[in-house]
From TrEMBL:
Pfam name, any one: Bac_transf
Lineage top rank: taxon: Bacteria
Keyword Transmembrane helix listed: yes
Family: Belongs to the bacterial sugar transferase family.
GO molecular-function terms, A-Z: phosphotransferase activity, for other substituted phosphate groups
Originating species: Fulvivirga sedimenti
UniProt domain Bacterial sugar transferase: residue ranges: 7-182
PANTHER family noted in UniProt: COLANIC BIOSYNTHESIS UDP-GLUCOSE LIPID CARRIER TRANSFERASE, UNDECAPRENYL-PHOSPHATE GALACTOSE PHOSPHOTRANSFERASE
Protein's name according to its UniProt entry: Sugar transferase
Residue ranges crossing the lipid bilayer per the database entry: 12-36
Keyword annotations from UniProtKB, A to Z: Membrane, Transferase, Transmembrane, Transmembrane helix
Record flagged with keyword Transferase: yes
Amino acid sequence: MYRNFIKPLGDLFAALFGLAITSPVWILTAIALTIANRGSAFFVQPRPGKNGRIFRLVKFKTMTDERDANGELLPDEDRLTKVGTFVRKSSIDELPQLFNILMGNMSLVGPRPLLVEYLPLYNEEQARRHEVKGGITGWAQVNGRNAISWEQKFKYDVYYVDHQSFWLDMRILFMTVANVLKREGISSGTSATMEKFKGSEL
């Protein structure tokens, strides 16, 4: 009942309410990022959702498209603007995903939708993270976000799949608010964002 009816309905109302109350933030953020990026304020990328179905995820764009002499993108830390840094640390960059929730591609809470290129790299257990819709926040995000290893992150994702409930979702949402206020887990230990997943050894 919760997974198939109550949670989707709650996601819909939460997304509509969130869009209504954050509209001023959207406007200011879009203007600031357009200036800082010298281009688009939005970032759209294909991501796998429930059962691996591909959808287009929308976020605020926090990095420029600056490239080196060979045409390769500069490292993340070199492309992350001051405005982008604030938007990331405050998690404002995730707000456009409310549209993904309205379209039925995502949920408020669930494993984070990652890159399509990671799909063939998951082992059988890790791939179970796609048994539910991806979320704006999740059990892995409130337990370390980018500051934990990929393997630990996937363990948290599978734990959520097996224990999804109203009370766990409420706990994750409250912990998300606390983590945003404390600005914890934004970066990994060696990167401004998170190193790419290259597959597990086991």
